[in-house]
Amino acid sequence: MFPHLESVPQKQLESTGDGRVEDDNVEQLKGYRKKWDGVYSNDLDIEWHCSFEQVRDLLEPYLQQATVDAGTEGEGHGKVLLDVGCGSSSFAEEIMRIGGYASRFQEVVLTDISSVILERLKSNWCERQSAADAARRFVVCDCRNFVEKEVPEGSVDVVIDKGTLDAMDSEADKAATFRECVRSLRRAPAPEGSSSTACFVSISFPAVARLHFLQAMAAAAEFHDLIESPHIHVVGDKDPAYGGRVVFVSIFQVKHGRPGRESVNQASPGTSQCPVPYCPSALTTTVLARAQKSQSIINEPDDEDDANIMGALFDE
Ligand SMILES: C[S@@+](CC[C@H](N)C(=O)[O-])C[C@H]1O[C@@H](n2cnc3c(N)ncnc32)[C@H](O)[C@@H]1O
């Protein structure tokens, strides 16, 4: 869809060997923690980008496909939802409650770098817990480097990133976060006979740069045998060229035909088949076509000056 993707520097896509971030990123980790503890320390409760209700119709087929055999599996093989950089969001809770997925997921794992917000979320959310709800686990961790015992490789059926890739300071940190999200996804078919398909849902600002990033990630050698090309949807009230507010909802499905839970870096080719087909809305088609032609979600290519000015508004 975006032919100039090849221009994304390979350095951004490279692993640091075993997929772990390097020690000198510890300073950056402290920086993220300080910044976000600060953001949340004055009782800020905010839902970034959108509520579940606003994207429910779009996400429903993917959530159903990810949990299609929930309840038919043996104990310990229940479905897991992971919210990466959950902040004060109630998105995961809404999936359970409004979406009716409480009985389809065995566990909801909420992670963030800020212990301040996780403590608050824990007390708020636990007050509302009912016996029928999925178990919930609150984990303080760096999204660029999940702790294996907290989020084991290949253990998650639905990963949600809402605004967390947006919050990363560099392309390298975005790439590390993306890698961890994909690593955590349950490979198909797992367990034996499963017909479900795990997915990674990334909700972001409508930055054209994000389209390039996601496409480049999907095409990177370490991922392209594991995940399908993203289904990118533009969701909002109306066309941003006419003042509409939109977000990108990008969904990666695990490829079917995988032999098992092998490491991302050792993946061998599998057959490719997207269980949930791509059905872009008219708004999506219009905005993505414009973005491809003019590198702006607002302006057509001939409005060059305006495109530069307005496009910059959406740069991260
Ligand atoms: C824009 S907010 C989005 C919060 C929430 N997902 C939502 O939709 O309302 C970004 C979140 O990422 C978290 N975050 C930032 N850096 C992080 C890191 N290195 N590891 C994990 N979480 C991080 C922040 O604490 C914050 O909660």
From TrEMBL:
Domain Methyltransferase span(s) in chain numbering: 78-185
GO molecular function: methyltransferase activity
Family matches, as CDD domains: AdoMet_MTases
Cross-referenced InterPro entries: Lys/N-term_MeTrsfase_sf (IPR051419), Methyltranfer_dom (IPR025714), SAM-dependent_MTases_sf (IPR029063)
Keywords: Methyltransferase, Transferase
Gene Ontology process terms (BP): methylation
Region feature Disordered, mapped onto this chain: 1-24
Source taxon at top rank: Eukaryota
Pfam families (alphabetical): Methyltransf_31 (PF13847)
Cross-referenced PANTHER family: SAM-DEPENDENT METHYLTRANSFERASE SUPERFAMILY PROTEIN
Family listed: Belongs to the methyltransferase superfamily.
Official protein name in the record: Methyltransferase domain-containing protein
